[in-house]
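Hey team,

Filing this mostly as a record. A colleague (T.K.) asked me to run one chain through the structure pipeline before their review meeting, and I want the input and output archived in the tracker in case anyone asks later how it was produced. No errors, nothing strange. Just documentation.

Input sequence:
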Amino acid sequence: PLADGRPGCIVTAIDFMLATLSHPKQTGAARAKALRYLIHFLGDMTQPLHDVDNHDRGGNCTSVRFFAEQKPQNLHSIWDYELIERELVSGHSTPSKYAVELDEKFSTRWPEWGESKTDVIAWVWESHKLAEDFAYGKLDPKIPGAPATAGAADQEGCAAERDKVARLHISIGDAYAADARSVYREQMTRAGYRLAGLLNSTFQ
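Output structure:
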């Protein structure tokens, strides 16, 4: 639910936070809270597995082998941080240096990502497609996305999904990581540019 008790989703939540930020009678504390949530929601929305549910809570019930690690990990956490952390370590980089690198690499995309019309629903479907095509679609064997009406798995369903995928013996390696890198680099930059664009338009 939203802060005022109304039911909602990430799309309506972002609308609510933007309205709070732009309302002249809101307190500084309320605006600060709305800004924190806006940053969080935009980041979540841009990670593809937050915008799909394959009967597995967006990859949380899908366990796969990550490179040479013996213990399987859930696909969601791999996309949340494992892939990026592996790239940072191998490149002897830091989050701040990495952010500068991404900004330099994608600076020409600012008009497209930072100055375009705000369309949160389109952004969600954009990430949903990336989840289907890359996060699930590049696994070997491929795991198809569930219908939009599927809903999240309960605890019992999550265990069943984890067992089903475990029997496929899926392992993530260099080829998958390279495909994922092209996605998460763009998605992180999109999120930053879109956040900047939203804040520019809100406070102008």
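Quick notes for T.K.: The chain has a mean pLDDT of 88. Helices lie at 10-22, 28-46, 75-90, 95-106, 110-114, 120-136, 155-166, 174-203.
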